[in-house]
Amino acid sequence: MNIEGLDYNTQRDHLALPEYGREIQRMVDHALTLPTKEERQRCAETIVNIMDRMFPQNRQNADYKHKLWDHLALMSNFQLDIDWPFDVAQAHQMNSKPQPLAYPMQDIPVRHYGNMIAKVFEKLKTMPAGPERDELVRITANQMKRNLVLWSHGSADDEKVASDLARFTDGIIQLDLDHFKFEKVDTKNMEPRVNSKKKKR
């Protein structure tokens, strides 16, 4: 349905900086049409002053004025021919999106232990016997136990940890359950937090 004089934001031109609204963008578009540099300069300074009054809470930020002129450059698509009080050449970087992080695609033998524990398994295979390896075995076994509790809904077996530790280190690490004591796992702190506050009606 088309109604004369009525349109929607989806039908309008894209706003470079939506936080300033469409009226500020129209002022910038108007400044681009002014015939003389003096007129464009006065108009640009007026626009920046209005932008300044829109967000007075930001005046304490470093380089605040510089950022306002950067924003003006972005909204004019760097086409506004004026004497810029600041260097706005790098303003386009403010609007650029960061590159997405690459998702690790390593093949993890047992996902509930995680990638870090899998790397520790590989390290344990090459470590010489001694106190340093014994300490790493202790830390690893206890973390494996915590992971099992977390992903097995509170159930974990000491023999399962010992069996997996031997399996994934190619039999090099043999946990003596007659002497090895696991740390107590606090299951309360491992449960996901649930917001107990109910919405008031």
Structural summary, described in words:
The chain is built from six helices and no strands. By secondary structure, it is mostly helical. α5 packs across α6 (158-168). The model has no long low-confidence stretch (mean pLDDT 83).
Which class of secondary structure composition applies to the elements? Answer: mainly alpha
Computed CA radius of gyration, to the nearest angstrom:
31 Å
Strand tally is 0
Query: What is the mean predicted local confidence, pLDDT?
Result: 83
Major sheet? none
Order of helices and strands, N to C?
HHHHHH
Low-confidence blocks of residues: none
- Estimate the helix proportion, in percent: 40-55%
Span between N and C termini? 37 Å
Helix count from the secondary structure assignment? 6
| Cα shape | rod-shaped
Q: What is the beta-strand fraction?
A: under 5%
